[in-house]
Sequence to fold (254 residues):
Amino acid sequence: MKWFNMAKRITIIILLISLPFLLFYVATKLSQMYNKMHYDTSYKNYEEGINAESYVLLPVSKVIPQDLISGNINFDTLSHKFILPLKHQYYDEQKQEATVTNCMYVFDKNGVLLSKTESAEESEQETEFEHCVKLEDIFFDNSKCVSVAYFLKESYRYSWNPFRGIGSPTGAGRNMTWEGTAYVDLKLKKEALKLKIGEVFAQNFFSNKVERNDYALYISLYQLPLKFQKMSSISFFVRRKAYGPNELYIIKSK
Fold:
């Protein structure tokens, strides 16, 4: 009998101790469900386009090898054309190998695709860039152009390696603790684009609605240098995937 009473008391104590954590968990889940429903009404997955009055977002290529976009978006100041000498990477599942080809995109100043040529051979195109300027990734100099309205935590990630980052010139850095979906405001001249971006990593355990620097968004926005923006308002949006090729989109006015 004494043992039974002792076990009953221990059970009650455990329930009382765990009750606040259980209530916190339920409240967190309900809050996440509400916020997801709330933000899903106005934010759209960038792969499906955007909900905007002034702009459209259209895919250019989703098979560009990593680190091959920066410095390769050019604008000819005489012909007013965008020239993008890029590469495509295709993966053959049967052969289990990747094939890389050269691809040249040419857009007019309004973002209309004029030509697309793809070849396995390198072509000499130096003469096509004599009067070109390179588009700049504006996120490097202006972090106010992008902000995270809400971050939906989906899975927890933590590195248990105590030697992580040792030997790196930048130090160990912060562990990425959460993976989830970010609801991002991308501020352009006419309006802010509301993008929903998955596979985003949060560097702060309590990240929810904080500064952009708390997140690894892996996105870039390329625009003309300021003194050339009267010639064209076209932007190129890049999503750098953690695994696989990069994705390139064009943003133009309706």
About this structure: The helical segments are 2-40. Residues 93 and 99 are 11 Å apart (CA to CA). The chain has a mean pLDDT of 79.
